[in-house]
Design a protein that fits this description.
Two copies of one chain form a homodimer.
Chain A: E1 3-8, H1 16-31, E2 35-40, H2 46-57, H3 63-87, E3 92-95, E4 102-104, E5 113-116, H4 119-126, E6 130-134, E7 137-139, E8 145-147, H5 152-163, E9 168-173, E10 194-195, H6 197-205, H7 213-222, E11 226-230, E12 238-240, E13 253-257, E14 260-269, H8 274-284, E15 292-294, E16 301-309, H9 313-326, E17 331-335, E18 338-344, H10 354-364, E19 371-375, E20 378-384, H11 388-398, H12 414-421
Parallel strand pairs in A: 1-2, 1-9, 2-6, 3-6, 9-11, 10-12
Antiparallel strand pairs in A: 4-5, 7-8, 11-12, 13-18, 14-16, 14-17, 15-16, 18-20, 19-20
Helix pairs in contact in A: 1-3, 2-3, 5-7, 6-7, 8-9, 10-11
GO cellular component, one term (chains A, B): cytosol
EC number (chains A, B): 2.7.2.4
Domain ACT (chains A, B): 263-337, 343-415
């Protein structure tokens, strides 16, 4: 008998029918003898619709009001799930973030959890009642509703699991768990039975969309075991935990990310201070620069490239256009058709040959490397977007990750999954 | 300079455009030097939609969960109104029932207000910020959201007005105020400048839909001045207040109500205990009996009729069908096409000729009286529904209530107004 937190995202509660499925999942666990605590996101597109209403009245809505408005989405889904459980004869009670004891700082729209008081939740569990908690929200010292920003519901689930000392925090989504690569791109990808927090963070940071980084960071800090699994099957998913018994794979998985863009400034005088001028201007204009590439100087003139998220491109263009004349550069070009492919593995630290093997593999496959960046447990290369799938596949084979069998798709189409992976709270 | 509570119903905030209109009304008051506090209902059909969602999951949803679900409607409208005010450069903050300090008992779905703590609202007003309060909701001793049931938002407004010692509680709706009769039925009806709480309560109880009785009862108890007025014009409406200087009109107004039905049990043995058996059975089956008519007995056999709300008819039928054989009555018939027409006036108490004059007037107009009931300040008659308008008009003339001019309709159609008058919270 375990105490389990079960978090369901927006697609899992998108309709009354899906909410009934979620209720059945919780009931099955209860019948198996576990105590369960549910955490839910808002139904399907609710949040987008609420943002639309707000923007119809105020193009820059006050953060406090927006938080309260958005928080209604989870209040709806939590009460509906409680009703669905009651309809099946299982006692359930819904709780807002405030009622669940989730206190945050006052940074509306991206509040940070400062404490979790679990008394009321545990009293409820002890009475045999299933608590259903609104994800994504908390209360600040002004007694005002706050929201936690992107990944908020996953973070709520991990925080609650920590607060009530749950055995595991199950995060249900439309994918079966964490894979060695995206199965839609690499059909021989394998589901991992377990992965360390560090590897998971690097994979998530490099584009793997299964879990929100913030929730994983919270889990690592407080040592909460996460079980990432599918809402649409009963198969075991992937455990994310600190595991001393875990064999340190050189490469745990390969992530790819097509959301970045590359900007190249041409004909830059190779003088000290020029790069500083460019990058401090980008930073002060809120452009998140990821990689930087500076070519070898020829006769005092060079090119500087950098990559940044596609969403930052308008600000990047604006900055670069302003800076190019002031540094006497010739011009700039933007390449949106790039992909970042990242090898992640804690074991990489003690295996110096990874980079060489990766470059060799890509070279043999005629894949041109446009940029490189590394961390102690990650190696990322930028390639043409058109070659991204091929790059993932050949690296996946070269590092011995291929499964014997080809992954079987879930019932959702790739487009549906892709759409879901790119949002969620 | 006054302190004014302004309450806007669901139709007034049904769309972003209407919410902007409401914001402009509040701003105009603010510009005129008043301090304003807004109270809002949920947007348009929101509540019905939420009930529909709940019923899709549970045909008998738990009251606590339903309250939380329904309360999200007002959370949405209050934040949107605050955003609309901010967009125009006026500071505003929304407050849930809990944040506004409205404490209730724990009777979910029809909670009663037990106290109002106005500190936070008044601090907000004192800072020059417009508070926007969610109507219809409060918090109970378990820290759970409650809703106040029908007429709840009007009651919230009156309770807040009392709590902050406002000069007046303005209740905006689609009608211009309280009329001597329904202008759609009686074109010579006049808008009243003021009316006493007692007269207003009798009119509301007799079918006049402008204000919720419960809010008027609260206002009478705590002496809160209500100003019932139109959300779609700037004209003064009707003040509801205790006014010693008010001339006690014999008849203040005439209400009509077509929602009741009449049930007649035929061939009842005229024996003691028979009526008691019938009406106690009806009472225990939650049928709200309004009027009772027993015909003169002929040879020990009589007829008994009663009226009740149309919504109680299924339960009334079920009861009567069960009782008819046990009291050896012959049969029963149901008449749904009836109307109750009520004369209301505090001055009636000291004018004994009202009933005689009313019966005479109806007789001269060939209107048959099916039943009669009275209170010290009300005389109600039941007539055929087809003659209801004629009855209202001839009584309106006979008691000198006719206006010189014919009422000009608001921009809403009669159907729209009728639909609105029959609901609202």
């Amino acid at each position: 008998m375990s105490l389990v937190v079960c978090k369901f995202g927006g697609t899992s509660v998108a309709s009354p029918e899906r909410i009934k499925m979620v209720a059945n999942k919780l009931i099955a666990k209860k019948k198996a003898g576990d105590d369960v605590v549910a955490v839910v996101s808002a139904m399907g597109k609710t949040t987008d619709e609420l943002v639309g209403l707000a923007n119809a009245l105020n193009t820059n809505p006050p953060a406090r009001e927006l938080d309260r408005l958005l928080s209604t989405g989870e209040q709806v889904s939590m009460t509906l799930l409680a009703m669905a459980l009651e309809a099946q004869g299982y006692h359930a009670m819904s709780f807002t973030g405030r009622q669940a004891g989730i206190r945050t700082d006052g940074t509306h729209n991206k509040a940070k959890i400062v404490s979790v008081r679990s008394d009321r939740i545990m009293e409820t569990v002890d009475k045999g009642i299933i608590p259903v908690i609104a994800g994504f929200q908390g209360i600040d010292d002004n007694d005002d509703m706050t929201t936690l920003g992107r990944g908020g519901s996953d973070t709520t689930a991990v925080a609650v699991a920590w607060g009530i000392k749950a055995d595991v925090c199950e995060i249900y989504s439309d994918v079966e768990g964490v894979f060695t690569a995206d199965p839609r791109v690499c059909p021989r990808a394998k589901k991992l039975d377990q992965i360390s927090y560090d590897d998971m963070l690097e994979l998530a940071g490099a584009g793997a969309g299964v879990l929100q980084m913030r929730a994983v960071e919270f889990a690592r800090k407080w040592n909460v075991v996460i079980h990432s699994r599918s809402a649409f099957s009963d198969a075991e998913g992937t455990y994310i935990k600190e595991a001393p018994d875990m064999e340190e794979a050189v490469i745990t998985g390969i992530a790819h990310d097509t959301s970045e863009v590359k900007v190249t400034i041409r004909g830059v005088p190779d003088m000290s201070g020029v790069a500083a001028k460019l990058f401090s201007a980008l930073a002060s204009n809120q452009v998140s620069v990821d990689m930087i590439i500076q070519n070898v100087s020829e006769s005092g003139i060079t090119d500087i490239s950098f990559t940044c998220p596609g969403g930052d491109l308008p600000r990047a263009r604006e900055t670069v256009e302003r800076i190019v004349p002031t540094i006497n550069a010739r011009t700039y070009i933007v390449d949106e058709d790039i992909a970042k492919v990242s090898l992640v593995g804690t074991g990489m630290k003690s295996s110096p040959g990874v980079a060489a093997k990766a470059f060799e593999t890509l070279g043999q496959n005629d894949i041109n490397i446009l940029a490189i960046s590394t961390s102690p447990i990650r190696l990322s290369v930028v390639v043409d977007a058109a070659q991204a799938a091929q790059a993932v596949q050949c690296l996946h084979s070269a590092f011995g990750l291929d499964s014997d069998s080809v992954f079987v798709e879930t019932q959702l189409s790739a487009e549906e999954i892709a759409a879901k992976m790119n949002k969620g709270r």
